[in-house]
């Protein structure tokens, strides 16, 4: 055989192998597409944000959550930078009513006078408003920590 013929056969073999390899890669990509989410799946896939602190009306936030197919768990806390607990509970109950099936919440209770012997019995969570209560832990300084 002459060298041009051998080179042609080798080139054809390489091209065939490359073509076969590309087909295998395409099949693998197709299988991977079925196993993993892509950006195009974002709005279709249901998602849960399990830790948010939503206060007030939150219309824009909730409109985006609905558009992006999110459910949320808003958590009430006894923390100085947040609204009073009762206000947080009312906002959460309002969200619950306006976005049924999209919103859940966990409430808390005040740790004011935590070290007082009468502290425990006088605590009132609006248990009729929330299915769960978050129990904050107090540090030695008396401030709560999450």
Instruction: Please state the structural category.
Output: alpha/beta
Instruction: Give, in spatial order, the strands making up the sheet with the most strands.
Output: 1-2-3
Radius of gyration: 29 Å
Order of helices and strands: HEHEHEHEE
Segments where pLDDT lies below 50 for 5+ residues? 134-146
Strand content: 5-15%
- Can you tell me the overall shape? rod-shaped
Oligomer: single chain
Mean pLDDT over all positions: 79
Task: Give the proportion of residues in helices.
Answer: 40-55%
Helix tally equals: 4
Largest sheet: 3 strands, parallel
Distance between the termini: 80 Å
Question: How many E-type strands?
Answer: 5
What does this structure look like?
By secondary structure, the protein is α/β, with parallel strands linked by helices. It has a domain at 44-145. 41% of the residues lie in helices and 14% in strands. The protein has helices spanning 3-35, 59-67, 85-98, 119-122; strands at 47-52, 70-75, 103-106, 137-138, 144-145. Strands 1-2-3 form a three-stranded parallel β-sheet, covered by helices on one side. It has a two-stranded antiparallel sheet with strand order 4-5. Strand 4 and strand 5 (144-145) form a beta hairpin. The termini are far apart.
């Amino acid at each position: 055989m002459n060298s041009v013929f051998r080179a042609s056969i080798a080139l054809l073999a390489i091209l065939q192998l490359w073509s076969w390899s590309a087909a295998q890669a395409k099949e693998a990509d197709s299988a991977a597409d079925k196993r993993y989410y892509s950006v195009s799946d974002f709005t279709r896939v249901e998602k849960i944000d399990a830790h948010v602190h939503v206060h007030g009306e939150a219309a824009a936030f909730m409109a985006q959550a609905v558009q992006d197919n999110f459910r949320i768990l808003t958590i009430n806390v006894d923390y100085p930078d947040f609204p009073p607990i009762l206000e947080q509970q009312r906002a959460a109950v309002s969200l619950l009513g306006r976005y049924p099936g999209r919103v859940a919440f966990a409430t808390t209770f005040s740790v004011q006078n935590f070290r007082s012997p009468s502290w425990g019995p006088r605590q009132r969570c609006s248990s009729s408003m929330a299915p769960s209560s978050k129990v904050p832990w107090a540090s030695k300084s008396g401030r709560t920590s999450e």
